[in-house]
Fold Endonuclease/exonuclease/phosphatase domain-containing protein.
Amino acid sequence: MFNMENVIQEATRQKLTSSSLIDLIVTTRKDLVSATGVFPLGISDHNLIYGTIRLKNKRPLPIIVKTRDYKRMDIRGFRDDIESAPFHIASIFNDPDDNLWAWQYLFNDLCDKRAPWKNVKIRSIWMTSDIRLKMNRRYKLFKEAVSTNYPRKWSAYKKARSNFGEVQSTSAYWNLMKRAADPKAQKTIGPVKRDDGTLALADQEKACIMNSYFTTVGLNLASNFPPITGKRQGANSSPKDNRTVPLLKEVHVSGLAIRNKLEALNANK
């Protein structure tokens, strides 16, 4: 049934006059089962059955993306190709879709010539360029040490191996661990609503809207308070009520001073 097979071959219930196979282990992957058996417990006429399977955690396939190679691209040559390309021949078509197809065909042909496509494997977030260079250098020194068997080569290899996993600071280590453990936790600020009800998506505009809101919180709260007078009159007034309340009318702040304070902050904290 459902292509399932029993892997227990011995009798699982034994009596004085008979024995039968009642307890089963069924599977659709009999090839993964390495060993099976029956073990008498002595507390029941049904024996214990067991089975072991071979399981191996397969390494996930790498993520391959297709991108253009701009490393050796000749910008001046590409600009000359764009200027000399016969894009005007696309106007011979009456259909706008055919016109667009002709233009894209010419443009993609120039891009394929100057910046060809290549397949790139997406590496893990903890595998940086610096770590990759250290790994390659360590492996190169190891091959040289094995082939030559010079003590100097072996010492250079051991030094490269000991300096391989070095982290410059504690904050850099924890930032790396945070990105590696939960890369999806990095979230950006969502859209911010403008005064007219529309949404702001640009980061700079969102920052300006939030700054303007928080800078006016004090003014909005102060406008809701009752007016404060210097002296209070009344029969129940105490000497403490007849005091002058100091008011701060103007605050002069230098933009350069604020900028210096912000630049001096430690952004890693």
Notes: The chain has four domains: 5-53, 64-121, 129-181, 192-223. The longest strand covers residues 33-39.
